[in-house]
Specification:
350 residues, alpha/beta, Rossmann fold, 13 helices, 29% helix, 25% strand
Amino acid sequence: MVKKMNAAVMYGPNDIRYEEVDRPICPEGGFVLKVKAIGLCGSDIRNLTTDSRKGNYPYIYGHEVVGEVCEVYPEVENYKVGQMIYVYPEAHCLKCENCRSGHNEQCTEVEHYTDRPGGFADYIAYTKKRVDRGATYVLPDGVDPILATLAEPMSSTYACVENINVTLGDTVAIIGAGPIGIFLSILSKMRGAEKVILIDINQARLDMASKFDIDYLINSSEKDPVEEVLKLTNSIGANKVISANPSTIAQQQSILMAKKSGIVVFFGGVPKGALTEIDTNIIHYNGLWIYGHYGANSIQVQKAFELAISKRFPAREIITHVLPLRDINEAIELTKKGEALKVVLLPSED
């Protein structure tokens, strides 16, 4: 008899149903986790509210997974029943040219998390490929699984500020005050940035951001963000500008608020097919470096996990809501409205 579990199942755009489904069977050479906590990511919301799978439903999303190993295939030695682990969503091959050159985020043989059912469920199964490739991290005793869910969004933001070398004395302007913008702001200050300027059109998000050590908050629905950044930098512009939201307007604004020879990062992906109109003369004559950021390499994933669960990072302030998985639709709405900064979902204990 097939065992059952509860899961948040997507049947189409904005059609997510909390229902009973078949519990996954342990794959040959793999293992099964009992999900203890899972973060709700902006990309999850985008996927759950659009026709992300082009009619290929039902499907279970969810990739910011922390759980307890509850079943291990015989002869698998790397995992033990009872271990609490965080699983990085992408399984890089570590062998292709991109991986070997330190760019695991561009792995050509990656096992994408969307290739298999996700973690918005009581249980999730991982394959032999995951066992072989790793990218799982055991939580030290006493670490709250809820806090460990931040390791995944931490990884890409950690990689971003490291890759563009945010450093002592920098002025960093960040467009987008969602969880990613908050992470980028905190990490920039930790790396020694003198001024961090956070910009958003949503005042509720800016109000939540005010509890963190961020120097300036700008509501771009009320003030011109480019003018404000130039005022705050004596008309010089920011050393680094990060567009951390899915907006072509933000990308347009980002090159206008960067100092000459500065770095502009396109962090947030825009909707497919959307094109950003940019005056390339500004890039040319101001000597700007435009950097498209995505993902993290393997060592950055590890360092991000270690920082996310450390006392140096204000994880509890970032997680504003902890809700049962059955309330995933409420969690989506709270996040979309800007009333929640970061939501973590808890599957049932049945």
